[in-house]
Amino acid sequence: MASLFKKKTVDDIIKEQSKELRGTQRQITRDRAALEKQEKQMEAEIKKMAKSGNREACKILAKQLVQLRKQKNRTYAVSSKVTSMSTQTKVMNSQMKMAGAMSTTAKTMQAVNKKMDPQKTLKTMQDFQKENMKMGMTEDMINDTLDEIFDESGDEEESQDIVNQVLDEIGIEISGKMVRAPAAGKSVPGAASSKQDTISDDEIERQLRALGVD
Question: Which residue ranges are recorded for the region named Disordered (predicted)?
């Protein structure tokens, strides 16, 4: 019983109208089919009267055929009008829904604007930027302190010992300044004229650069 007294919504009304328009369109199509069938029968009857020589009957049937064809053409006009009405109804429904959505969105935006304080929002963003900069500066200070802790003089001396050890292995001595050291074997005077191999200055400098020693 409650459904009988329920107020119809706009969607319910549009659905009912669309249903009625579809029914009207189907009825127009059936009427046109009946008129086309009657038209063919009348054309056959006119041909029959013409063969029998009954000219008066042919004239009467011809006038009726003209009226019948006019009526059939009118069904096309009515069908087009019904289709236009159905389309217009759908467009109006879409526009109403769009208007409703815009109204809801406007109300939501209005509520958000009331709760949002532009000055407070700006201050929050500025505070965030300031604290972010502080965090970056603190991180840089921590990194610098760690670098100072781990970069001690003992480490540099240990690195130099490793470099000296490597230089000894390849036959290079460092005693205040770089001197040419012989390769494996005893030092022989006049080595420039002998076949004993020595390490050139260019080779020494290349090896030092490879070890990171300037």
Answer: 182-203
